[in-house]
UniProtKB/TrEMBL annotation:
It holds the Pfam family TIL. This is TIL domain-containing protein. Residues 25-82 form the TIL domain. InterPro entries: Ser_inhib-like_sf (IPR036084), TIL_dom (IPR002919). SUPFAM superfamilies: Serine protease inhibitors. It comes from the Eukaryota. Residues 1-19 form the signal peptide. Keywords: Signal.
Amino acid sequence: MKFLVFCIVLSVFVTLVFSQTEKQCPANSHQGCAPCCPDPTCSNRKPGCPDKICTGECKYKCRCDEGFIYNNVGDCVRPDACPNA
């Protein structure tokens, strides 16, 4: 019985550790907490913030580095590299 409890606790621990490991982010981006408000994109440079309650929970995702925004395929580019910049 103790062995079964040990295996369950170990599997929960391993799952938590591996779910929080650092992701490999593409060029011009880094790992960070997902924002409550949308990030700017080439097609929407100043997105509004939806009327929703933001929690303090951090959901990790790749985010564009400062000075970069998402293009239409989700890559982080400088704003002057956007179509119709």
